[in-house]
Amino acid sequence: MGEVEARSSLWRSIRIALLALAALLLVTPAAITAAQPSRIVAVGDLHGDYQAWTTIARAAGLIDASGHWAGGRTTLVQLGDILDREPDSLKIVRSLQQLQKEAPRSGGRVVVVLGNHEAMNLLGDFRYTTPGELAAFAGPNSSAIRDRVYEANRAAIEKAAQAANPALTPQQIRDAWMAQHPLGWVEHKLAWSPSGELGRWATHNPAVVKIDGTLFVHGGLSAEYAKLPLDEINRRVEAAMASGDDGPATILYDPLGPLWYRGLVERDPDAEEVRAKQVPPHAPLTADQELDAVLSAYGAQRLVIGHTPDLKGIEFLGGGRLARIDTGNSRAYGGPLSWLEIVGGRMTAHTVGRPPQ
């Protein structure tokens, strides 16, 4: 080999080595980034307390001072029961809807799990709805709208009232009905109906979701429902919401169903009553056995639930495989403001002080 050929061969060897090194340098940062574990933040029941929500969301790095998404690639899971007990549920809904649109622009995600109180409002069950929540829907035409609704139903309203008390005059009946249906009531009912804007939004929120090995559900997953695929549970709940199914067998009120079940964290008399009527009778399981069955059914490592308040704070049960995160965030309960963080499969409970009202 001549001197020129030798130099050419040497240069080719050096060039190949440099290209290999350059490729390694280019790949390494990407590989490191890909290996970073995802971050999930789960927030429990909020029950109309907008200040509690924004305080938690800022402390968890989810929103900035203006209320816009600041969570980057974080996945936020809010476990339902946004509504009732305190006045600002509509503000929380609007915030979550906004973040659902903003988060994907940064690679993040916002999942709102359906709670039993969202289902109750859709079905017209307003036992826990506050005057402030109704007033949030009132507008300049609310009085005229309410009058039209009353006149359209006046005959039926008067008949029902006089059946209970024949001495009532039409004016007394009207005054009582108006007092029971404050301004904003009609708009609230329409918005939360199955065909209303908020009813349709809630209908399309999942009852149960699995993310990176973690199951999230508002109430709990019973052994009975764990026999169903997650998609089937969500399909049944969505169908019941879309049709406004409030029948005695509806999944939306089933004590064993995902919106109401409490048996994983405490004795559940309603669930026990249903199980006592099963044929053949349900073989009782311990909470740990039932948790084993649920996690095994879905190939999950852990389960996160809300619904059943624990004012002591977030509690880890079942050998750290079950997180109970409804800590009474709303002032209606007065519990600690909290959120759960999951990074690389490790769950960490966080709290933040409640600001003065």
How is this structure best described in words?
With 357 residues, the chain is α/β, with parallel strands linked by helices. It folds into three domains: 1-36; 38-129 and 192-352, 4-Layer Sandwich (Purple Acid Phosphatase, chain A, domain 2), CATH 3.60.21; 139-183, no CATH class. It has twelve helices and ten strands. Strands 3-2-1-9-10 form a five-stranded mixed β-sheet. A five-stranded mixed β-sheet has the order 4-5-6-8-7. β4 and β5 (214-217) form a beta hairpin. α9 packs antiparallel against α10. It is globular. 38% of the residues are buried. Residues 3-8 and 13-35 have low confidence and may be disordered.
What's the CATH topology name of the largest domain? Answer: Purple Acid Phosphatase, chain A, domain 2
Low-confidence stretches: 3-8, 13-35
**CATH class designation of the largest domain:** Alpha Beta
Please tell me what the overall shape is: globular
Report the sheet with the most strands, covering strand number, pairing sense and barrel closure: 5 strands, mixed
CATH architecture of the largest domain: 4-Layer Sandwich
Query: What is the count of structural domains?
Result: 3
Give the helices and strands as they follow along the chain: HEHEHEHHHHHHEEHHHEEEEE
Secondary structure class reads alpha/beta
